[in-house]
Each structure stands twice: as C-alpha cells, then as structure tokens.
Design brief:
alpha+beta; 2-methylcitrate dehydratase PrpD; 60s Ribosomal Protein L30, Chain: A; 2 domains; three-stranded antiparallel β-sheet; 49% helix
Length: 482
C-alpha cells in the first residue's frame, strides 16, 4: 500500500476510534442523526421518487438480509441502503454539515443520509451482535471522514460535486468497521469506493430528481466497496492523491491537507451537522428563518409587504436563487424545483408558517397569494457574503422587509435552528420524526416508532442493536440470523 496517500491515515482512523473517544456532543449528534434520517426516509416513502425506487428494488429481489423501510420487504443490504437513502433524501429533510470551525473550508453538505441507511442495512445480517456503542462509533467515524474529504477540496468542493460524491469513502469506513476488516482490507475498500464516486447538482438547476439519487448511489457504493474488500478485492493504492486520484481528477488539483487530517481522532466533523427544520435545500434556510423571525418579532402582515431584499452569496444564488436560464425562481414548476427556490420557500413560510411536506404541496405551487409574494422578493450577491461562503459554505442571509407604509425591518439570523450552535433538543427531533412518519406510504404503529426512538436514545446501554431497523417497517420482519 502507498503509505503516503492519506487514505492510509483515514483507514487507520476508521478502525482506531472507539466509543470512548467520542465527545458527548458528537454522541448526541449521532443519535439525533439516526432518528432524523429515519424520519426523512419514512416521509420519503410516499414521495413519487421514493415509490419508484422502492418498487424497483422489490422487483429486483435478492438475498433477504435487510429491511426496506416502511414496507418491511427483505432485500440485499446494498439495495435496501440504496432505496432507504433515496427515500430519506427525496423530500429535502435530511441533515447537512454547514461548515467547520476547525477547517474553515466551506461545508460538507449532506452527511447521514448516506451513512445511516447503509449502516442500519448492514448490521441486520451480521452473524455477530453489534453493540450500540459500536454503532455510534461507526456512524461518527464514517461521517467524519466523508466531511473531511470534501472540506479538503476547498472551493473546488463546490464546483458542482456534493457530499454524496465522496460519501462512498465514509460509508466504506463505517461498514468496514462493522465487517471487522483489518487496515489492509479497509484500504482496499477505499480504492473500491473511489472507483464508484459520483454525484452532481445539475438537476437542482433543471428542477429534476437526479440529485436525490446521489445519496442512494453513495450508500450502495460504500457497502459494495467494503464487501468486495472483505472478499479479497485489491483497490487503488492512492485513491486520493494518485495521478488520477480524487483531488487531482475531481477537484482540479486543489487539496488542503490540514482540512483532511488535522485533529484526526480528536475533532469529529460528524458532530457539526445541522438538523433541518424545513423540507428544502439548506441554501434556503437562512432566508426562511430570518424572514419568519422578522415577521414574528414585528408582527408584519404579508399583505403589507412592498418588497423583500435578500443579500447572499454566488454559491447560494446558483443553488437556490436562479433557474437553468439564469432567471429568479419565482414560480417553480415542481415541488423539487420549489425546494431549491429561496423566493418561493420564503413566501410559502410567511403564508403557511413553515416549509414541510404537508405545506409544500402541488396546490401550493399554484397558490396566487404565494406566487404574488414570491415575486416581491429581490435577491442580490455581495462580496462579503462570497468571502463568508468560501469559509462556511451556507451563509446567513441579510433580509430587509419593506412595507407599504415606508418602514424597513432588517435582520440576519446567524444560525438556523438545528445548527450545532442552536441545536434542536432530542424531543424536537423526535417530534419532527413523528410528523414525518405520518406521511409514510403505509401506516406505522406509534408504539413501534416510539420504541425505535427510545432505543436510539439509550444506544450506549444496548448490547445488540441488530433488530432496531425492524421498527421502521409497517410489518416488522424477524432479525436475520446471518
């Protein structure tokens, strides 16, 4: 193996971390991530893409190892992870890494929507018990590696790739731990992971669905990589810095070693993720949150608004301000296009109170009041916001609400609820989980859902957690024996 390639250090890190190494805030964050990702998947089961991927993997069949969430069908772990991850991604409810005080190199993007479905699928058919502590450590180290890899690309990490692009490495690390791979095999898994890296954000401009597939592809790829290595596959020795490695090829040669390797084993980026309060692209959240705060604080009536000015970054504008023609996304054609529209989601939130799947509906897309308010929102980019985006990724929006009587109400909320600096409580995450579960394609028993949340809350006390994913199905399958 090429010890000079940082993949060797990442493999050692993945296998060396123990539960006792995790700071309490990281443990709490991982527990919330499990519940939150599962809730997003339950809600996504009734979305059109969620139904499509579930039907596809059911029709394909295979070894009955792992649970397809909601329906309870038994599938190969890689296919269950693929479908569950897509379901958890396709309503824009899953968590996001917004930036790191350690690295200051932008953001890690979507994280646990790949890691959690993969890990839960794999543990179900292992022939040995998996403790809650080991589950927590596997998810924490997988998310940490995934985020570090993207942060190390700096500005190039946001050229059009996203978190799922590098997620096969993090998933392979988490799964490799659970499969008890040694360092040599895990490095081979890293090579196999790189062979499968994919994912881009083109569909966010087109208003289509491919961006959600990226999560499923990353979850599946990481499992495949680890399984291949377990069976003897020989992967690339230098998948990160080799002549055609990740950073030279994907990220145009930009590589920041300190963002990848500093404080390895001491600082866990998996503890820096934000739980989403809204079912929309994270790039919309600051504008929504600040606007709602201003409306509530000053009791502003939507009918009294003359215009709203939003100042943000180029990156945010590309993601959630302009469509494929460079025009403002005032009147999105589809729900998924609306999820990437700052003007529309701001207007929806002001009139409906929030942006969640039960308010962001097909009917809302044609609502004259929402559309009229959306057209009153004017977006612009500033140099200060661009510099902030370079360091943090998702920047807080400056909002000015102008009313018809000439008054101006201004604000800029630094952290949206759910950010590590303004975290949700576990109860708030559970409440979101149950609201999401109510949207599942099949009815789920409240007592079983509550049992799932209770088990996750006390993971460090559980000696065997292999049956936990069964709580996420309308008909609970029996735990596979191996």
């Amino acid at each position: 193996m090429n010890a000079a390639d940082p993949s060797a250090a990442l493999a050692d890190h993945a296998l060396g971390v123990r539960y006792e190494d995790l700071p309490p805030p990281v443990v709490a964050s991982v527990k919330q991530a499990i519940i939150d990702t599962a809730g997003a998947g339950l809600a996504g089961s009734s979305a059109e893409l969620g139904r499509i991927v579930a039907a596809m993997v059911r029709d394909n069949g295979g070894a009955p190892h792992s649970t397809l969430w909601v329906s309870g069908d038994r599938l190969p772990a890689s296919e269950a992870a693929f479908a569950n991850a897509v379901m958890a991604r396709c309503r824009e409810l899953d968590d996001v890494h917004e930036g790191s005080p350690r690295a200051g190199r932008g953001h890690g993007g979507h994280v646990n929507v790949m890691i959690v479905p993969a890990v839960l699928a794999v543990i179900e058919h292992l022939p040995w018990p998996v403790s809650g502590r080991e589950l927590l450590a596997a998810i924490a180290v997988g998310g940490d590696i995934m985020v570090r890899l993207r942060l190390a690309a700096g500005d190039a990490g946001r050229l059009g790739w996203e978190g799922p692009t590098v997620s096969p490495f993090g998933v392979a690390a988490a799964v490799g731990r659970l499969l008890r791979l040694d360092a040599s095999k895990l490095q081979n898994a890293m090579g196999a992971a790189y062979a499968q890296c994919s994912g881009n954000v083109q569909s966010t401009a087109d208003g289509t669905w491919d961006v959600w597939l990226n999560a499923g592809l990353g979850a599946r790829a990481g499992i495949v990589a680890a399984e291949l290595a377990r069976r003897g596959h020989r992967g690339a020795h230098a998948p990160l810095l080799g002549s055609s490695g990740l950073y030279p090829l994907y990220f145009r040669g930009e590589y920041h070693a300190e963002a990848l390797l500093s404080e390895l084993g001491r600082h866990f980026e998996s503890g820096e993720v934000s739980v989403k309060p809204y079912a929309a692209c994270k790039a919309t959240h600051h504008a929504i949150y600040t606007t709602l705060a201003l409306v509530q604080r000053h009791q502003i009536d939507a009918g009294a608004i003359e215009r709203i000015e939003v100042r943000t970054s180029d990156y945010t504008m590309r993601l959630a301000g302009l469509n494929e023609h460079g025009a403002p996304k005032y009147a999105p054609r589809t729900i998924n296009e609306a999820q990437f529209s700052i003007p529309f989601t701001m207007a929806l939130a002001m009139l409906k109170g929030t942006v969640l799947p039960d308010t962001l509906t097909d009917a809302a897309l044609g609502d004259p009041a929402i559309l009229a308010l959306s057209h009153k929102i004017v977006m612009s980019v500033t140099g200060a916001k661009n510099e902030q985006a370079r360091l943090e990724g998702y920047v807080p929006a400056d909002i000015d609400i102008h009313t018809n009587d000439g008054r101006v109400f201004s604000g800029c909320e630094r952290h949206v609820k759910g950010h590590p600096a303004s975290p949700m409580t576990m109860q708030e995450v559970v409440d979101k989980f149950l609201r999401c579960a109510a949207l599942a394609s099949l009815p789920l028993r409240l007592a079983v859902l509550q049992a799932f949340c209770a088990d996750v809350a006390m993971l460090e006390q559980l000696d065997d957690v292999r049956a936990i994913p069964c709580h996420l199905a309308a008909r609970a399958p029996e735990l596979a024996s191996g």
